[in-house]
Amino acid sequence: MAKVLFIQLNEYELHGIEALAGELKSRGQKVELLVAFFEKRLLQKIKEFSPDLIGFSLVSAERNEAVQWARAIKSHFHIPIIFGGIDPTFSPQIINDPSVDFVCRGEGERAILQLLEALEQGKDYLEIENLWIKKDGEVYQNPVGGLIENLDELAFPDKEIYYSRYSYYRNYPIKFFIASRGCPFACNYCANQGLKQLYPNSSHYLRFKSPDYLLEEIKSVLKKYPARTIGFNDDLFSYNLSWMEQVLPRYRKEIGIPFFCAGRIDLLNEDKVRLLKEGGCYSFWYGLESANPEHREKILNRKMSEEKIKEGVELLHRFGISTQSYNILNYPGETIEDGLKTLDLNRKLKNDFVVSSLFQPFPGTKLAKTLGLNQATSSKAPDKSEDFSYFAFSPFRQKDTQKLENLHKFFILGFRSKWVRRLLPALVRLPKNPLFDILFLISFAIDYARVHRLSWKETIKYNIIHIRTTYLRRRAKAPRR
Predict the structure, then answer these.
(1) Alpha-helix runs per DSSP H in 319-397
(2) Which of 109, 189, 399, 474 is deepest in the core (most CB within 10 A)?
(3) Local confidence band at 181 (pLDDT 50, 70, 90 cut-offs)
(4) Distances (CA, A) of 100 to 72, 92, 287, 293
(5) Phi, psi (degrees; rounded to nearest 5) at 20
(6) DSSP per-residue codes, 174-207
(7) Integer Cα distance of 245 and 250 in angstroms
(8) Distance CA 73, CA 258 (A)
(9) What is the per-residue pLDDT across 108-123, written as a single tens digit (0 to 9) for each?
(10) How many Å is the Cα radius of gyration of the chain?
């Protein structure tokens, strides 16, 4: 029996780690997780568990910090380290760092099982698909293998890895699930387009769990860990009408807990919305991104008309489902006038909740490639972290970036208050001010709590942790004994 230790550098419950842990445990392997923020004496914990492999699953914002932690661990232990997740998938050159032995690109269930078997039995592992492997100073770059087409073949994702160790996850009133993998669309700011191109069987990129599998997975968790609300983190929960017809009536009968989900607003129809409502959906999240139709189509490749967006919002409201829109600020070519129009469109549509993020040139996205933005592709880890942040700043700079960053901080307040909206043309021209960040965080926390029915105590508790772990940019610190 091999032992795998995952080390996590944010406070989110990661579906990828849960999926890997579930599959590994079903094959008799021992798996543990250490969320760095919640741990003291992390090196001592590693020593006590004595893993055969240490894994980091990371996004681009965590790359520099992950390398610093990996280097610190390597200075104390001769344990192989594997990097996986969305960032190493598109920046596998991170394997050139002395602390990294393996990089997993794409789905990792098959690759990590094969690697552990080879390490246990002393077999050759240099040709395992999806892995870049460093041995004796040479890097072996293996191709990405096929997608796992039938998700039901996998073991249930293992939430115990979070819940049994940390009360933060165990007691959170929202329990999160994912019913599918993939997306058939090709938005220029999203990595799905690049991910799809990796696989030889890319025609199967969008896959849904069967109704039996999904419902049993949810019930197995709720039996031990109750929830007030269920959150489905799929890109396109409402994509397939036939699948919804099979799942949602049974969900209402067998689960019966209110849920929220996300999808394309332009693909909704009355049958889908009725199923959502009858199934227990209380909030629907969708990507609006920009009010400029030409920019939506030509820059973002988000091909949906304002009329279709309006129809979708009105349909959801007619059935009593609240709407939340996602919006991007400072995407290439956007002006402050465009940003203000996006805010105004949200007010016009009467969305119930709005979220804006600042454009990030993530690897794997077409915009990053088109614009030649290389911030996300370096394999070096600088001494000071220059990590990306959805909420703090955008590494892409253009004429109105500073104004758009200020607009981002006032976006929710401008959406809620006509008086703040009138002041925005002046407010966005002010110098950066930490007070703006505080106002943003307060407005975001209040709106999120309102939508998801969190108490004031829960709101304060979880947002303090969120601010400390993901909003404030931190220097990577080596763990101590």
Answers:
(1) 336-349, 366-371
(2) 189
(3) very high
(4) 12, 10, 36, 44
(5) -65, -45
(6) EEEE--EE--S---TTSTHHHHHHH-TTGGG-SE
(7) 9
(8) 43
(9) 999 999 999 999 988 9
(10) 22
Query: How is residue 448 written in tokens?
Result: 């999120």
Instruction: Give CA–CA dist 257/217, Å, rounded.
Output: 14
Q: In what order do the strands lie in the sheet with 353-358?
A: 174-177, 229-232, 259-262, 281-289, 322-329, 353-358
Its pTM surpasses 0.90: yes
Q: Which residues touch 306 (CB under 8 Å, ≥6 apart)?
A: 291, 293, 345
Which residues lie below 8 Å from residue 393, measured CB to CB, with a gap of 6+? Answer: 358, 405
With CA atoms as reference, report the closest residue to 451 among 205, 259, 182, 201: 259
- The label of the residue with tokens 């968790």 reads 221
Q: Does residue 251 contact residue 217 with C-beta atoms inside 8 Å?
A: no
Both structure tokens of 160: 């115990």
Q: Which pLDDT tens digit goes with each residue over 345-379?
A: 999 999 999 999 999 888 889 999 888 754 443 33
Q: Rounded distance, CA 228 to CA 191, Å?
A: 32
- Which pLDDT tens digit goes with each residue over 227-278? 999 999 999 999 999 999 999 999 999 999 999 999 999 999 999 999 999 9
- What values do phi and psi take at 32, rounded to 5? -135, 160
Cα 67 from Cα 71, distance rounded (Å): 6
**% of the chain exceeding 70 in pLDDT:** 93
**How does residue 405 score in pLDDT terms, banded at 50, 70 and 90?**
very high
Which residues, other chains included, contact 46 with Cβ-Cβ below 8 Å and sequence gap of 6+? 5, 34, 54, 73, 76, 77, 79
DSSP label at residue 75: T
Q: How many helices (H) and strands (E) does the chain have?
A: 19, 15
Structure tokens at 166: 């940390």
In the predicted model, what is the mean pLDDT of the chain? 92
Question: Which residues fall within 8 angstroms of residue 304, CB to CB, at 6 or more apart?
Answer: 264, 265, 266, 296
- Residue pair 368/66 in contact (Cβ under 8 Å)? The answer is no
Residue type for position 232: F
- SS3 category, 41: coil
Which tokens in the block code for residue 275? 């199923």
Beta strands in 180-321 (DSSP E): 180-181, 207-208, 229-232, 259-262, 281-289
